[in-house]
């Protein structure tokens, strides 16, 4: 019936509208440091079984195929793509990049993820107390908390996350802290909060805290930041495909409407 086509096409328009929203967000964050793009996963809905395969006819022959009519599509979920963005060399001593699967840990409000957030953005800076913080609007402190002395002349952060500073009239560097990284069994299960910060969920599993270089957490590269992993060419191709699919579904609605109009005019 044409009514099934109407409802199926309507589910297609709804799902494709969501996919368009996801693609637009990816393109909007193409230059966001440490941003991870999202992919929309679609799945088909239930099927009406009008004829069952394998049923024997009067001659004893089994029906080779069945007759099924699908009822449309829905968004199954959005998958966070965990590919690493391109490294950007800034030579800034507080710009850090993780060469691996780990996440920096930052201090967030207790009502969000038990007070610990996770991010790939390494554009760090200092607050008024000399603490290492993430350089976004909220400026959350990096965990473990590391304070840089006010008279530090330079900062050196090693591959293993060791933070050293060089002070006036001292030949040897002074250790002021140790950065650690978190990894997850299923990073796709992390919940995004905005500001390039994620929190753990039951799907992601608990955070595994490690020293950089251990447990596949990756090493820290000083003077680099990780760019967004959004591929504008891929996103624009997906945008065109989504737009054309949206148009075809709208055409299906028009065709179903015309069919219903013909049926309603049969009594005249």
Question: What can you see in these coordinates?
Answer:
The mean pLDDT is 92. Helix content is 22%, strand content 30%. It has helices spanning 2-28, 232-264, and strands at residues 38-44, 47-51, 67-70, 73-80, 87-89, 96-99, 104-107, 116-119, 124-126, 132-134, 142-143, 154-157, 162-166, 174-178, 181-183, 191-194, 197-199, 208-210, 219-222, 224-226. The longest helix is centred in the last third of the chain and has 33 residues, at 232-264. The chain folds into two domains: 2-82 and 230-264, no CATH class; 87-226, no CATH class. Strand 16 and strand 17 (197-199) form a beta hairpin. The protein is of the alpha+beta class and 268 residues long. A five-stranded antiparallel β-sheet has the order 11-7-8-17-16, with no helix packed on it. Helix 1 (2-28) runs antiparallel to helix 2 (232-264).
How far apart, in Å, are the first and last alpha carbons?
A: 20 Å
Please trace the helix and strand order, writing H or E for each element. HEEEEEEEEEEEEEEEEEEEEH
The level of helicity is 10-25%
Hey, roughly how much beta strand do the residues contain? Answer: 25-35%
Number of strands: 20
* Count of runs of 4 or more consecutive helical residues: 2
């Amino acid at each position: 019936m044409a009514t099934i086509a109407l409802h199926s096409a309507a589910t297609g328009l709804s799902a494709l509208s969501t996919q368009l929203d996801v693609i637009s967000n990816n393109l909007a964050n193409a230059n966001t440091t440490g941003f991870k793009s999202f992919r929309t996963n679609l799945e088909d809905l239930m099927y009406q079984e009008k004829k069952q395969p394998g049923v024997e006819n009067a001659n004893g022959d089994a029906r080779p195929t069945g007759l099924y009519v699908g009822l449309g599509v829905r968004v199954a979920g959005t998958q966070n793509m965990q590919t690493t963005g391109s490294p950007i060399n800034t030579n800034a001593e507080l710009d850090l990049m993780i060469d691996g699967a780990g996440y920096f840990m930052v201090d967030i409000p207790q009502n969000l993820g038990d007070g610990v957030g996770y991010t790939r953005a390494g554009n760090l800076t200092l607050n008024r107390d000399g603490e290492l913080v993430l350089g976004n609007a909220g400026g959350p402190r990096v965990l473990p908390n590391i304070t840089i002395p006010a008279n530090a002349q330079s900062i050196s952060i090693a591959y293993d996350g060791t933070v050293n500073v060089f002070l006036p009239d001292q030949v040897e560097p002074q250790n002021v802290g140790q950065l650690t990284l978190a990894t997850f069994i299923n990073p796709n299960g992390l919940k995004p909060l905005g500001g390039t910060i994620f929190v753990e969920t039951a799907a992601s599993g608990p955070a595994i805290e490690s020293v950089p270089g251990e447990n596949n957490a990756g090493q820290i590269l000083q003077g680099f930041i990780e760019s967004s992993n959004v591929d504008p060419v891929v996103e624009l191709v997906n945008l065109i495909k989504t737009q054309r699919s949206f148009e075809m579904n709208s055409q299906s609605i028009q065709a179903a409407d015309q069919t219903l109009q013909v049926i309603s005019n049969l009594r005249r």
